[in-house]
Amino acid sequence: MKALVLTKPGNLQIVEKEKPTPQQAEVLVKLKAAALNKRDQFIREGKYPNIQLDSILGSDGAGEVVEAGSSKEKKWVGKQVIINPNINWGDNDEVQSREYTILGMPTNGTFAEYVLVGADRLVEKPKHLSSEESAAFPLAGLTAYRACFHHGKISEGKNVLISGFGGGVAQFAFQFAKATGANVFVTSGSESKLEQALKMGASAAYNYKSKDWFKNSWQSKGGFDVVIDSAGGDQINDFIKVMKPSGRIVFYGATNGLPSSLDMYRMFWNQITLQGSTMGSDKEFIEMVKFVDKHKIKPIIGLVTPYENIVKALDEMAANRKTGKIVVKF
Amino acid sequence: MKALVLTKPGNLQIVEKEKPTPQQAEVLVKLKAAALNKRDQFIREGKYPNIQLDSILGSDGAGEVVEAGSSKEKKWVGKQVIINPNINWGDNDEVQSREYTILGMPTNGTFAEYVLVGADRLVEKPKHLSSEESAAFPLAGLTAYRACFHHGKISEGKNVLISGFGGGVAQFAFQFAKATGANVFVTSGSESKLEQALKMGASAAYNYKSKDWFKNSWQSKGGFDVVIDSAGGDQINDFIKVMKPSGRIVFYGATNGLPSSLDMYRMFWNQITLQGSTMGSDKEFIEMVKFVDKHKIKPIIGLVTPYENIVKALDEMAANRKTGKIVVKF
Asked: Does domain A2-137+299-329 fall into CATH 3.90.180.10?
C-alpha cells in the first residue's frame, strides 16, 4: 500500500509499505479520505516531541472497515466510519494519561491506503456527511469540542469570542458555539475571513491588526463570557480586559508565543479563569460526533485534492492562505 | 463613640463619632473584638481604589446586637454575632455584582465601639470560639473558603500547596484544607513559620528562598492538585511545573507583582487552570461559619491588644513579623 512517511527530518515521501493485518480487537480501515492538521506539519518541520522516522503520518481519517482481527470485530466490516485519533487517553475525563499519544507518528496513521486501529476507535459516519467531510472532524473537532464545552462551558445566550477564525479548530469552535445558541464573535487578521464569519452568523468580527480592536468589542457588547484562543502571546491581556466577571479564557495552543506579563490583578478581582486545553477524551469524541449529527454540522472545507498531492497540500496548509480544512481523497 | 478614621491620606486617628441609629432591616452591634486585614493597611497607605476620608475603617468584627431598627430584627437583640463584611455581592454565586463593596470604607466599619449593619449580615457566633477568635474569621476566612472550595475544589486526599504560610488567608486555607482531609503542603520564607506549619500537620514545608525548592516538592510528592497563592510574580511558573495534570492554581492576590512570562505550553498540554479569586458570596459566608463550627476550627491569633492600640497594631501587621491574625479588643 502507499503511505506517507518522514524519510528523514524535513522530508516527506509517499512510499510502498506492507498492508497490515489486524489482530484481536483491531480492524483494518480502507481510507476514503484523510484531513491535514498543523500537527502533521509540525512533525515535518521537527517541531514535535519524540519524532520517529518512517512512521506513517496522519491523525484524521474516514473510510470503510474491510477486515476484522477476530469474530468480535466482524460486525464492523463494511461499515463507513470515522476514526478517533486518541491512543491511551485513559480513564480520567479530566486529563489524558501519561501514556497518551495521537494516531499518526509513532503509531502508523491515516496518510496511507489502509490503517490499523482498535475497534474501540470507530464511530459510524453520520449520514449527512460525505467521507471527505467526515475526515475533517477528528483532531480539530475534538479539540474544539473540549475547549467549548468541558472547559468553556458554552451554552445558549453566552457571548463567545473565537480568536483567529482562520484555523480549523477555531472554525469548529465557531460552529459548535453557534449550534448551542451562543452569540459568537470572531477575530482574524484577514478581512476575507472576517467576512466569511459574518456570513456564517457571527455577531461581530474584529480585525486584530487594528489597534484597540478589543476596546470596540468591549464597548459594544458588554464583554465576553468565554474566549477560545490558540495564539497566546500578549493578546491574552487584551482578552482579560474584555471578559465579563467570572469569564473563562480557554486556550489550546500558543502559536504567538508566551506573554510578557499577565494581568493577575484584574484576573483575581474579576475572578477570571485562564484554562489550558488539549484534545479530548474518548467519551467526548463520541459526544462530538453525536453533536455534529444532531445539529447537521458540515465542516468548512478549503480544498479537496487527490492523495498523491498530499505533500503539496501540506505546503498549502503551512502557507495559511486557505480558510477551512484541507482534505485528501483516495 | 470612639472610631478609627483616615483623617488625611496616611493618617489614622481615633476620633469621637455619633453613635448611629438603626433603621428598618438594620441592627446596631456593640463590638467586642475586631480583626485587622491588609485591606485596612492598603487604605491607610493610599493603595486602595476610591478612598474616602473620614469613613470608619474595619471589615472584621464580632459583638452583641444591642438595638434593632424594627420589630422584625428584634430577635437578634442580645445575640453574640459575627458580621458578614460583604455589601451588595448580588445574586450570582459565580461573581460579585458591579455594586459590590466591603464593610469599612466607604461604609462605616468595625474599628469603632458600634457598627450599623443589615440584619442579613449577621451569623451567630459558634460556641467554641471567643469573641476575639470569631472576629478573626470574616474577610480572610471567606477569601480562603472560596479559594479552597468554589475554585480549588479541594477534597479528601488531594495534594494542596499553600504558598506564603504567614498570611491570614493562607492560614485559614491551610486549616480548611486540613479539615477536609487533604494532604497540605506549605511554602514560606521564614523558618519559624515553616516549623509552625509542620507542627500543625503540614505534610511538608518548603522555604521558597532556597533555589529549586519546587524541584524537591515535585520529586517527593508527585505533584499538586491545587495551589492556593496570593504572591503572583514569576513563581507562578514554578507552580505550573509542580502541578499534576489538570491541576488548579487559585490566586487571590499578586503581592509580588506580575510574572514576566507565563508557561502556556505546559498549561495547555497538562490542562492546568489558573484561577483568580476574591472574597466569597453571602451563601459562602454562612457555609464558612458552619464549616468552622463543624470542624471546631480555631484561628491562629498572633496578637490581641486593646482597641486603643489599634494604630500600633496596624504597624505590627504591616511589619509582617507575626504569624496569625491581629485582633483588637473593646
From this structure: yes
